[in-house]
């Protein structure tokens, strides 16, 4: 007999929670893809438009501080702000990130590394996270060690490639 009268969740309750979490994760990954596309689009637009590039170069410190400010504000208001306000801040951050990454890439001449990294990241999110996560019925949390190892490997390779391009 259970003296504390405590029971675990029923199978239907577990299934309901898993369904909600699955829907939220799908939405999160889709927004990440949209953010990456925005960052890449603004970066290429800045490269194609010399006036944008000149403006970003002349105001790099201000753009970087505004980008950090948007991050802080977004984090502080994540649970209290209107959804449309949060989406606006997200797209502002993505656009500013495109400008700053473009300038950093131009400064260190690492376009041979940055463009493949951005395209590879986008391909990963589209191929694995969005499509794979949306179509599979399997719990993908068992892949966490492999995905973390791949992430650490990509970071190490990025530093090696950047170091090699500076020589």
Label this structure with key terms.
mainly alpha, single chain, 167 residues, 0% strand, 83% helix
Report on this structure:
The chain has helices at residues 11-48, 50-58, 60-77, 83-108, 111-135, 144-166. By secondary structure, the chain is mostly helical. Helix 1 crosses helix 4 (83-108). The longest helix has 38 residues, at 11-48.
Q: Fraction of residues in helices?
A: over 70%
Please count the beta strands (DSSP E, at least 2 residues each): 0
Arithmetic mean of pLDDT: 80
So what's the overall shape? globular
- What structural class results from the helix and strand content? mainly alpha
Report, as a whole number of angstroms, the end-to-end distance: 72 Å
Count of helical segments?
6
Unreliable stretches covering 5 or more consecutive residues: none
Summarize the topology.
Elements (H helix, E strand, L loop, with lengths): L10 H38 L1 H9 L1 H18 L5 H26 L2 H25 L8 H23 L1
Question: What's the gist of this structure?
Answer:
With 167 residues, this protein is mostly helical. The protein contains six helices and no strands. The N and C termini lie far apart (72 Å).
């Amino acid at each position: 007999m259970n003296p504390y009268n405590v029971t675990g969740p029923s199978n239907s309750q577990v299934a309901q929670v898993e369904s909600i979490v699955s829907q939220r994760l799908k939405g999160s990954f889709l927004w990440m893809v949209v953010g990456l596309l925005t960052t890449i689009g603004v970066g290429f637009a800045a490269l194609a438009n010399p006036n944008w590039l000149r403006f970003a170069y002349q105001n790099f410190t201000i753009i970087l501080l505004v980008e950090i400010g948007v991050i802080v504000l977004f984090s502080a208001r994540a649970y209290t702000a209107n959804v449309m306000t949060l989406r606006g801040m997200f797209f502002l951050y993505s656009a500013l990130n495109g400008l700053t990454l473009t300038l950093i890439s131009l400064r260190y001449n690492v376009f041979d590394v940055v463009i493949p990294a951005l395209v590879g990241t986008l391909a990963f999110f589209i191929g694995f996270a969005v499509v794979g996560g949306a179509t599979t019925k399997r719990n993908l949390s068992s892949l966490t060690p492999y995905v973390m190892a791949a992430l650490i490997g990509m970071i190490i390779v990025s530093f090696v490639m950047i170091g090699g391009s500076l020589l």
